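Hi F.,

I've been meaning to write this up properly since the lab meeting, where we talked about keeping a consistent format for the predictions we share between groups. The idea is simple: the sequence comes first, exactly as it goes in, then the structure tokens exactly as they come out, then a line or two of notes. No screenshots and no reformatting. I'm using this chain as the first example so we have something concrete to point to.
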Amino acid sequence: MPKMGFRAGSARSLGMLRHTHVMERLRGEIASVMGGGSIPSREQIRRMPYLACVIKESLRLYPPVPLNNREAVRTTILPTGGGPDGDKPMLNIYGHDAYEFRPERWESGELANIGWGFFPFSGGPRQCLGEDFAQMEVSYTIVRMLQTFSHISLPIGEPNEPVGSEKQQLTLVLLSAEGCKVEILKG
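Output, unedited:
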């Protein structure tokens, strides 16, 4: 089978490229839910909890809108307030392993009691109306990629950079400044 390469700006955010055990677990979940079927339905995708965890973890580390600060309007004291007037507190709510790609953090109740623990689409009355559509679209794409290509990896010589060390470009949305070279094999 011939190998084919492509550059995909969002592929860098798919931690499964850098963590093959994640990709293999996803392949197993997809096979178990899909059986012999090839086109995933919405209901089938909703029965893939690990896929949802992988997407959440990717969006946690590489959110489409990387900065969404709030400003304290009056002097307050943490943990219930935001600090002196004008301060913009930034809290690390993910713990000591915040810079690790670990989809399993979303499986347990570890983040259940953290208000707004998943923030890529904002929340409350200003939450993105397209969140469900976007997550379903990404889910479908990942399922079809893993079904179609027997081999997806970083090409030989492409560095496996630690989370956050890649060159990024901050515009209205966060972009990979150099894309992500990917090697795929259909089979």
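Notes:
The longest helix spans residues 131-148.
Residues 1-9 have pLDDT under 50 and may be disordered.

If this format works for you, I'll send the rest the same way.

G.
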